[in-house]
Batch of 2 targets.
Target 1
Amino acid sequence: MDGTKQGNNMDSRQNNDCLKQKESNQLQGKQCGRREFLSRALKAAAVGSAAMVSGCGTGLLGSSEESALKWQEYFKKNYRLMTPEEKDETIARLERLAKLRKGVDIQMSSTEPVEDVLFGYAFNLTRCEGFMECVAACVKENNLDRKSQTQYIRIFEMEPGEMTPESGNGKYFHKVPVENHFYMGVQCFHCENAPCIKACPTKATWREPDGIVVVDYDWCIGCRYCMAACPYYGRRFNWNEPQVPVKEMTKKQHYLGNRMRAKGQMEKCTFCVQRSRAGRLPACVEACPTGARVFGNLLDPKSEIRFVLKHKKVFRLKEELGTDPKFWYFID
Amino acid sequence: MKTPTLKSYFFRILPALLLILSGLQVYAGQGGVVATIKKATAPFNDEERVASVPLLPGDTVLVKTKYQGGIFWTETRKDKVERFKCSQCHNNKDVTIAGAAEMAHGDITSVHGGKQKPLSCFTCHKKDERDFLVTEKGLKVDMDHSYRMCGQCHFRQQKDWVGGAHGKRVSFWAGKRVVKNCTSCHDPHSPLFEKRWPRTYSRPLVK
């Protein structure tokens, strides 16, 4: 304890940092001083090793700058423990790495959630006609792997009276809509009480204050417990290194959103966090040709989503599980 | 025998009290997101809160109805109609080209109103002022405000459109509310969406 005190008194800025980190440290169950010491030691080691590696010149590891950046990336914190400066640093590193590796100029952001915003989503079962424009737009916007054809959204063709997509046809490929059928879209429901968050052993996934359930890809160890825990099949796993042609890549990225994932990492729908936090609609909503998708702020009494919840017959999928999803289905 | 004091009574009922309290605690935590929504009644000022709310796009008009949050805008129609103004041809002068009507509007087939009561051109278009539309009650309607025409029959859809359950907003959930006009998605002459192939396909969930 004494050491901690002294250390704090020596540097007032560090003291402030410590106060800020108090909450996050409680999460980790560690003391401020020890944590600071460890992270500094690691940083020193990182810088030293980077210098060592860069000394070897360009070789097996690619350019020396690239390997140095990769090395520094390796020792960064969980996104929730990062200070704003550290977030900016890692974003700068990731932007530079993308440039070095693929020659792409990406613009990454770490836009924070807006206060008094809780995102909600509604899906009109009467209007959806199964054109799957949303799926294509989602793949493009979120830089999903083209090789394994990862898709966040699934559209099921359903017989009248069916209530769960488990009995629906998710593999239809014919002209739509078919008479006497309805179409049901399923994606991540951003549960308030999300089972996937509880299942994660590394705290790599969490619920943001605006209700979006996100993944810190770099803290994901790929155990897929969250995938097993999700009752809605909302999560996707990268079995291979995701492949996106540079031409088709979405350059505007968010740290928690559509930045490039790596092999062995979990990913999922983020309500297009890079768009929604900037006031824009998610790609699926914007692409929907029938207006079956409604997105908005649940805490805003004048929003469309609130109108739907107030005036329409709504239900949520598997509500009895107590997951409390923020995704409603409604009929006209 | 000693009579039980108040204190001993308290200790006897303590487990029951604790049980009730914990039950209340759990009950208060329930309700989840629905309870949160019900509590949120304060207005949300998009312009102040969201950093990058967009300016009002140029091709919009103020809708003549109000929604739950006040005024809103919709996309214009006139600038998307080819060869507007209609009065360029439809005026007092005689049209001398043979088959002019066929040439000008041959691409339009009216599939609207069902087989029993199909709509004709002049159900909606104003005969003596071709730049405008006219309602059943004889009200002259600007083409940009064509939602007023549709609402005559499709009043349920119009109510949903005003509220936000039918149709969609243009690009942004924040900022000034700009929604698609009826004619942005539906062809007014044949408003039903045609059958077509889906844009993509899904892989099977379980192999």
Target 2
Amino acid sequence: MAILFAVFSGFVLALASPWLTQYTGRATGWVYGLLPAAITGTLATLVGEVAAGETLRVSYAWVPGLNVNLSFYVDGLSLFFALLITGIGTLIYVYAGGYLKGHHHLGRFFSYLSMFMAAMVGLVLADNLITFYVFFELTSFASFVLIGFNHDEAPSRRAAWQALLVTKAGGLALLVGFILMQQATGTFQISAILESGDLIRQHSFYLPIVLLVLAGAFTKSAQFPFYFWLPNAMEAPTPVSAYLHSATMVKAGIYVMARFHPVLSGTDLWMWVVGGIGALTMLLSAWLALQYTDMKAILAYTTIMALGLLTMLLGLGTEVAVEACMVFILVHAFYKAALFMVAGAIDHEVHVRDITKLGGLWTRMPVTGAAAALAALSMAGIPPFFGFVGKELIYEAATHFDPATVAVTVVSVLANVALVASAGLLVVRPFFGELNDVTKHAHRPDAGLWFGPVVLAVFSVGLGLAPGLLDAAFLGPSAGTVLGASIAPHLALWHGFTLELGLSAVTVAAGVGTYLAWTALRTNTAFQQLERWLGTGLDHGYDNVVDGLLGVGRWQTSVLQSGVLRRYLSTVLGTTIVLVGAAFYHYGFFGGPISVADVRPHEWVLAILSVVGAFGTLFFRSRIGLITSLGVSGFGIALLFLAFGAPDLAKTQFLIETLTVILVVLILTTVSSVEGTLTASQKATNGAVAVGMGVVVSGLILAVLKLPFENPMGDYYAQNTYVEGEGHNIVNTILVDFRALDTLGEITVLLVAGFGIYALLRTGTAPDPNAEHEPPPEDASAPIEQAEQTQQVP
Amino acid sequence: MDLSTAFPTLVTDLPAAFSMSVVGLVGLAMIVLDAFRNDHPAIPWLGVAALGVSAAWEATHLGAPQSTVFFETLRTGGFVAFINLIILLTGLATILLSVPYLNQLRYDYGEVYALIMFSTVGMIMLGSANNMVSIFLGLETMSVCLYVLTGFIREDEGAVESALKYFLLGAFSTGFFLYGIALMYGATGTMALPAMAAAELGTLSTRLLFWGGFALFLVGFFFKVSAAPFHMWTPDVYQGAPTPLTGYMSTATKAAAFAALILVLVHAVPGGEWQLSVAAVAVLTMVIGNVMALAQTNVKRLLAYSSIAHAGYVLVGLSAGTSAGYAGALFYLLVYAVMNIGAFGVMSMLEWDGKEGREQTLSSLAGIANDRPVLGSTMGIFMLSLIGFPPLGGFAGKYFVFAPAVDAGLTWLVVIGVLMSALSAYYYLRVVYVFWMQSADDVEATDPVRAAAFPRATVAATGTLVVCAVALVVLGVFFGGVLETTLGFFESTAMATAP
């Protein structure tokens, strides 16, 4: 029950909030915040059981025939993420209420936000690959509408679209990976798959599974080279950025990697791809952050840095690394959400986010400033903050990682140096120094705007002082699930004078140095060039890919959809030749030798006459020649029928041919010229298609001739006409006896046609209400001519 | 053959043709009424009533055992009832959506609705065929009506041109189709589908004849379901035809033709030798449909390419050649019908006479969702479902045609399908994006949206769209029952060929 409430209550609020918001007024954020708070409380009651090593499952049959179930699963990892999502969510709801106060689409906003939260909770609790994927895509869609919430601004729309296309493409890769995973293990149930690690690792699908799942995770969690969408997504309203990029959306990719860590990790492939891409992303983005002056841009790049770090730690995969990963997820969520909310509060009160233009806000917004300072100290990893505990663990993981100790350690320290500098930029620049023209009119923010940062700052301090609180309740179960083993971690603020402490000291010192040299660094041309390649450069790469695809689409359209009927027919005929030709190829051409010995002389004459007539239609320029050769061909065939003793067939053919010739004469009189405008190559193509079709059809006819001829129907009528129908004329008995119902049908058709003609005549005589809309009388042949000319532009 | 039992058999079998008779007879009645009271406003409602009654009848027969009637020319039972239900409900929605559209164009002729009814009769016959002759009859009844429906807006050159193209290419494909049937008959000596499978193909030349004929037969069918490379008529025709009827063409026609194809594949050529050809056509269809849709600016053309792409997805399910694949394809046809009739329905409400004919470009609709939120929301759901976004019906549908193909060892085919779905997100989302996020100011050089010139949104038409959207959500979440039903049609005992 608790699980269902956690997953589905958000969707209920999403449906209700557009309507409900008119009653909640100014308190909307606080009222709606009760829901995530309630979910958090409900889930918190499960902590004891899960910490004791139990897992809870709820399952409903969805498609029993195919073993697809709607099932949810609570273990250490999923509970850890779910609590983070709803806990931070509570603060974001309150904050959003303050930030968007009076916005005329507030109800819509909370609808999107609730849908997003519910989808995230569903994602982490899902116990079925398909359910997992469904929620994964729902988060993509919800983030699309959230990022594009300010849809009257073009950059917002572009960012929303870009985020969706990138994560959606990754999501589909993930789906293929999941399908392969099901093929390998025979089940969609995640908890069952987690127990078949060896099976998957030794399966021939292992490589594609890892690459596809990672494609999904890397796009969602903004890893190199896909991270370009995340800075653009800063166009979203700040509450959205604070939520999506601290605790939720981008952590979904981390969750994917952590969830399937037990079955996919443990190979060199995993270690080098995940660890390598993570380290690269971390290092690049940490330093790219220093290129920007917009607070949200700096926050965006430090978020990518954090995601790279988490990815790297999952790639390392040692016990310490995974513990460090879980702790840092928490550390990052606390400080990043707080700093985003602070940036939003400054934006809300001053309408400027450029740190070079801000200053002295400490006097105007002291509570916000204090919360920001505490969060930044945690971010910089200063003791006794929670960030320090995290950083110590990261350094421990790096220095104890076997194959590449030095490289991992150096990369981690370098990235953290930049992080310290960014922390300084985000707090010292806006809050300290003198008030200036921009900042002196700042208002004191509402309680809603500082409530969240303060709560998070308190957590950052409290957990720093007493990190041991997390050991048994969260860290043990979550890291244990990722490792697939039972562990008993022990977090502490103080470990004595260790190598890690030394590295921390170096990091902080170097970070302060970098902060002081920031202006010089930012204007350094080599550094700016780096940004042009890896920041905006990747973004342009995305544009080029999209444009390229559109180009291919246009090119293909112009080739295949020319609008010219002749080309359509050639394509259809060409494909037919291939398909039927394949049957020939497979079964042999005629099914045996063909003899022409018993063909009589006059049959030769008639056949050649038909062929010559057919060729004549191709080469005659004059109209009379055209019509004559068409007639020769047709009448030649009719005479052939006669020669083979089928007078009725021949009679029909004569009538049809006569009619055809008359119609063609009628049409040709209205066509100005019969001169073709085809080029030589077009003629060659047409000729090839015609010859191919001729060969295929002739082959089929020759194959028919090889079959024994039977005529059961003719024999039946001949025998039964007198016996059953009591008549001597076979045709008469067929019409009125054997097929009497058909005849009845034909009479009915005639009757209906009569009604139709009556209706037409009536329309002609009675005044027609639509008469004024009738088209002017046109030349009857116009549409035929225009078929090739007035084609809609494809 | 003992003719003495012929008449009693026909009489006992009549209930099996209930829908066909009701729809056909009411169609005739509509023509008669139209002859006496020109364009009587009750005509469409007569059609709605007939289609509704027939749909209710079919719904009660979903669980019926499968057998054959009328001397094994037609089938009855759950499969047939399911397909008929799709066809009848699509027809119903089409009529409801056509009324305001045709009123607006002042082309609300009575015979339009009668033609829809006759076309529906053809489709029903196609979907319940057990004999090549029934297939041909159904196909032609359906097609001839559609040729006329495509071009009945005679003022519109585009419409007339597309009708002519449709007719010429359609007649061509019918030729192939007939030739194919004739050869298959020649090889097996029978027109009945199950008997074809049972026939001995002894000599080399009989086998050649049968498979050559089957290839021609497939060409004819691929044309009707607009599979590549026989799809070229589709964009031109879909663009030119009156919009609600385009929706009808793209959904009911496809459902009926695919149903007949499934019947042929299951009963007449159950061996699966065709698997690779069908898979190849599926790849071509998905790639061509999706890539070409990227470049479209006209929404109807875009939807035309999208419908080509979706035919490809159905073919993926068919290539699997397993019960699950056929069941998935049937389910997909249902979902596809709902979302596409909805998408074309929305477009029919958003057309007006611009400078260059009926205005259908995407950019002319920038920000329209803010003025018409119901149309905007339903269109959003249709587009997301067409992408295959969970938890909408489109996702479930796509999943249940792709999964059987993976099981049948066609993983490469599914990977292409999924990649193409990723591509499709681009153009479907562009519609959502333009509808909701842009505003008329963002678009240069188009007429401002002239809301007054839109067809009047009647309660029935808007209701139809809302019902379609809700149905997609329901199908996306509670697809279990429907899918189990379709799976049941293909279980070995249920698909027994003898009555």
